[in-house]
Amino acid sequence: MENVHISSCGLTVLLGLLQVAFLNRLGGQPPSYDKKSLYKMGRTLGAGTYGIVREAECANGTKVAVKIILKKNVKGNEQMVYDELQLLQNLTHPHIVRFVDWFESKDKYYIVTQLATGGELFDRICEYGKFTEKDAVQVVKEVLDAVNYLHERNVVHRDLKPENLLYLTPEHNSSLVLADFGIAKMLDDKDEMLTTMAGSFGYAAPEVMLKKGHGKPVDMWSLGVITYTLLCGYSPFRSETLPELIDECSNGRVIFHERYWKGVSSDAKGFIGELLQPNPNERLTSSEALKHVWLKGETATEHDILPELKQFLARARLKRGVELVRLSNRIEALRLRQDANSDDHDDVPQPGEGAASVPGAPPVSGGGARRLSRAARSAIFREVVLAKVRDMKSQQQTEEAEKTVTSLSSNK
Q1: How many Å separate Cα 211 from the centre of its chain?
Q2: Which tens digits make up the pLDDT trace of 54-68?
Q3: Which helix (H) or strand (E) holds 122?
């Protein structure tokens, strides 16, 4: 009888899945949307240019990260999503976030990946009692190992920055993984040049900002900025506007201030100097960088960098706090706005919902206990997704960059 009972339960589950599939087809959902029922959406982990990332729980209890992208937000650029999917499915490396699954609805794409729960690079470091140059060597080696794996396969990440470097688990010996391949590109050949603006303010290479055509060397420039910041607690390029930043990076003015660098080895400075070369052809390649004497760790010092890194993180948290307040105000303003219907209502982050917290940042307000209309929830979701796209400062910087590039070109 026990076997009959198990078979009956299995049949019930099967019938339930068939019913869900039938209803999905009836509602015009793509076949892969049936996978949606396998994941229970949890807290919001972050918002990016094209979508949000949410934590989700699989039927077996495993936690994963789900990147949700609005199709209308990438209309005409759907290939970008397919490129990311193709990339992730073909990458297997201990220091690269692992692809799990993907599916789509009528109006969204879902990309499921391994969930990293150990925190961002700088957040994690600041939990330590001490962080030395020798520790920094290990961090850079892990990142560079991942970058070299990509470059050997003609893949350019194009958005290397501390926020995309995550620890898999809270354990002390956890691996560091490279995440967010949204703007990564697979080159048709090793000499192919990309021309679109890509990357993040402060980490993008000069050739990207000048639209001169770029390739693998842009990742090495970004790694140079990360390494510099990791060793002193501030960026090598501190201009507040994009035109000034372009000028600063193009001139290669990298200064190692004695007050903060006196305890750091000359090999570390040499390593950074060979990465932050304005001419991409003069930068170390990933394979060359792996052979650099600094990465052997023999000349690295025991100089404690943690006090400076904590100051850097405090400034970053303040900036994030301002962004959260701005986002909260947008959500509250949208609460009663009417908008078009959207499917997948459990994807929509509610005001006051348990989002991933930013230490030192104010909480996102807005009556979590109040019931919102479906249209209002849809509007809120859209605003979260488009938060950075609509950011006026980013738009202004882009316009300034275009003017600067035009001006530089006309002066030649």
Answers
A1: 22
A2: 899 998 899 999 998
A3: helix 121-125
Instruction: For residues 251 and 249, give the distance between their C-alpha atoms in angstroms, rounded to a whole number.
Output: 5
CA dihedral (71, 384, 201, 102) positive or negative:
negative
Reduced to 3 states (helix: H, G, I; strand: E, B; else coil), residue 126 is: coil
Tell me what percent of the chain is helix, strand and coil, each rounded to the nearest 5: 50, 15, 40
> Two tokens at 33?
């949307």
Question: How much is the pTM?
Answer: 0.74
Is the Cβ–Cβ distance between 43 and 26 less than 8 Å?
no
Longest dimension (CA), the chain: 87
Active site residues: 159
Is 275 in contact with 230 (CB distance < 8 Å)? no
Q: What is the rounded end-to-end Cα distance, in angstroms, of the chain?
A: 86
Higher pLDDT, 201 or 333: 201
Tens-digit pLDDT profile for residues 138-194: 999 999 999 999 999 999 999 999 889 999 998 888 989 999 888 898 888 877 888
Domains located in the chain, CATH noted: 118-412 (1.10.510.10)
Residue 392 has pLDDT above 70, yes or no: no
Q: Is the pLDDT of residue 336 over 70?
A: no
Q: Is 75 annotated as a binding residue?
A: no
CA distances from 74 to 80, 167, 181, 187 (A): 8, 29, 15, 21
Structure confidence by residue, pLDDT tens digits, 356-382:
433 333 333 334 434 445 554 454 454
Q: What are phi and psi of 100, to 5 degrees?
A: -115, -50
Structure tokens at 350: 């509610």
> Any idea what DSSP says for residue 194?
B
